[in-house]
Amino acid sequence: MSATPLLELRGIDKSFGPVQVLRDVALSAYPGEVTALVGDNGAGKSTLVKCISGIYPTDAGEFVFDGRPVSINSPRDAAELGIEVVYQDLALCDNLDIVQNMFLGREKRNGIMLDEPTMEQMAAETLAGLSVRTVKSLRQHVSSLSGGQRQTVAIAKAVLWNSKLVILDEPTAALGVAQTAQVLELVRRLADNGLAVVLISHNMNDVFAVSDRIAALYLGQMVAQVRTTDITHAQVVELITAGRSGGLGLAAETGANGNGAASADRTTTEGAS
């Protein structure tokens, strides 16, 4: 595990008209680790991911990638840095096979013809590098695959392009027990291969099974970033639902009006790396 984050966000703000969705958000993702991004519906998780991936421009804040400040103004900028996102809908085409899906929009060519042998070889090597054994043929249409196999193809597609950071949006949603276990094993393997992984999940069992760190969003604010070993299931639930748990999260403030409003001060625990 590295002591230096691959991706570091500082002071990220994002508003849509009068609605401020993200407020002074900080987030760190480390190579070789899985960072679980948790939060209730409407906490700002999807907006934050779309800012990282260049879909939404930020109103304020700084991106630091691999130790240097960067600007991410489009999905192409994110991809060139090595940031890939696997969204919940997977963005796969049912009428195409696995190889065609993995290279969709980035096809290899030999002159004016598609270089099918090279693409098939690269797809096979990528799946083998992830120890994927559940796919019978690279030429299977995606429509014939199970939910777990589809998720596997989407993840393999993301890591095919020398990616350094992979963001997974609810990868085990709607999967059965056995398929969930396969996908979580693959998520862990990504980190073990040296990639930085950000896992968005509502499933606390999944979060505690594979994550090294947990980052909790509450109403657009990052209220805690802690090592998974330093926090309990109950504390994470409290951070998600109330923004604070004991000494973690938004501090209770008793102002002159005595109303006990929550302040913007946050306690962040980052164990030694």
TrEMBL record:
PROSITE patterns documented for this protein: ABC_TRANSPORTER_2 (PS50893)
Record keywords: ATP-binding, Nucleotide-binding
GO MF annotations in UniProt: ATP binding
Domain of life: Bacteria
Domain spans labelled ABC transporter: 7-244
PANTHER family: CARBOHYDRATE TRANSPORT ATP-BINDING PROTEIN MG119-RELATED, SUGAR ABC TRANSPORTER ATP-BINDING PROTEIN
Name by which UniProt lists this protein: ABC transporter ATP-binding protein
